[in-house]
Amino acid sequence: MCGRYASTSSSKELQSFFDTMQTVGDELPPSYNVAPTQPVRVILERTPHEEPDAEPKRQLRTVKWGLLPAWAKDRKMASKLINARSETVTEKTSFRSSATKRRAIVPANGYCEWMKSEEGKKIPYFLHGEGDLIAMAGLYELWPDPELPEDDPDKWVWTCTVLTRPATDATGHIHDRSPLILPESFWEHWLDPYLTDKGEVQAMINSVPERRSGRSPRRSART
After folding, report:
1. Which sign, positive or negative, has the C-alpha torsion 68, 72, 76, 79?
2. Which one of the listed residues 2, 45, 112, 141 is annotated catalytic?
3. Does residue 217 register a pLDDT over 70?
4. Which of 112, 113, 141, 160 is catalytic?
5. Digit-coded pLDDT (tens) for 127-179
6. Spatial contact of 139 and 104, defined as CB atoms under 8 Å apart
7. What is the DSSP-derived secondary structure letter of residue 190?
């Protein structure tokens, strides 16, 4: 799973790296310990609400980590849906709508996993790639807060989740799952809001190559 990650890039850096056209939401301070239910930055493509006939625009947006399906009765579910299994994401009730209509990239500078020692203690490791940023596959959702009136600007709550896959590379001895990392060649198709066939989406997920880190995992001094 992915339960903590680092996000230290500025909005300007993310805008340049992912070639976004819009920025929505507040700038977030750098953090080496981003936790579930906290505000996070995501990349997505969406038609502007005020221009329904316009082409989708790639945007950098602040959302909350922990998916809230549109049918959720309250916010409690968010903490349980911080991750989605890539193998079943197009079938599970909590994720299938987002998987076919609302995909996102969750940028990170690395992520944390904990390995159990022989003594039963959990040892934190900070896993990262050769570059400064990794693109974790994610989904986003809009949840209507039932406690707020229809005309309240905060009525719609934006949330996200991070997809995971079995960890079969050198990091597998630390944890049996890892984030689904998207190579740059996948970004355009992953973010394409017109790609809505669940079979094609699942095929794309299944075709993402296993990521081989150029660096060995190291114990984290920041967690």
Report:
1. negative
2. 2
3. no
4. 113
5. 776 668 999 999 999 999 999 999 998 999 999 999 999 876 555 455 578 89
6. yes
7. H
112 catalytic, yes or no? no
Residue type, 72: A
Q: Tell me the two tokens of residue 196.
A: 């809505």
Radius of gyration of the chain, Cα coordinates, nearest whole angstrom: 17
CA distance 35 to 152: 27
pLDDT score for 125: 72
| Helix ranges, the chain (H) | 11-18, 96-101, 184-191, 198-207
Give me the pLDDT at residue 124, please.
Answer: 73
Query: How far apart, in Å, are the Cα atoms of 155 and each of 15, 48, 69?
Result: 27, 18, 14
Q: Are strands 31-34 and 134-144 parallel, antiparallel or unpaired?
A: unpaired
Q: Is 138 exposed, middle or buried (0-12, 13-18, 19+ CB in 10 A)?
A: buried
- Look up 113 and say whether it is catalytic: yes
- 3-state secondary structure at position 172: helix
pLDDT in tens, 187-211: 999 999 999 999 999 999 999 998 6
Strand ranges, E, within the chain: 4-7, 22-24, 31-34, 39-46, 57-65, 83-85, 103-108, 110-116, 122-127, 134-144, 156-166, 177-179, 218-219
